[in-house]
Amino acid sequence: MGTFVIAQRLSGAYKYEFVSRKGKTIFTSNDFELRFECEEEIEVLKNSLEKCVFMRFKSSGGKFFFRLIMDEKEVALSRRYTTQLLLQKGIDEIIKYADKAEFLDFSSAEDIFGTS
């Protein structure tokens, strides 16, 4: 099952990623000023997957990727895939698992593993 991971960029902006059950990032969201905005968009995304559009593209370097469009607005950009089949598998994983996915918050500055 996939997982949504909330993190903070070096710039201070927040983002979320959808990570596959094997630990690979499938897509990364746009930036958010506040952490709770990530949580809100994740919930909206989970509840409206059937309305989402996956626009497929091919980069000049020959890699495949998609843009996730929700309510006529781009909300996320996928990682680059080497083949169209792998791209489709990434999309299928989102459709199959995103509505049931939990989310993890790694945006705090605390050390999640503690000190040794």
TrEMBL record:
Native organism: Flavobacterium ardleyense
SUPFAM superfamilies: YegP-like
Protein name, entry field: DUF1508 domain-containing protein
Entry-linked InterPro entries: YegP-like_sf (IPR036913)
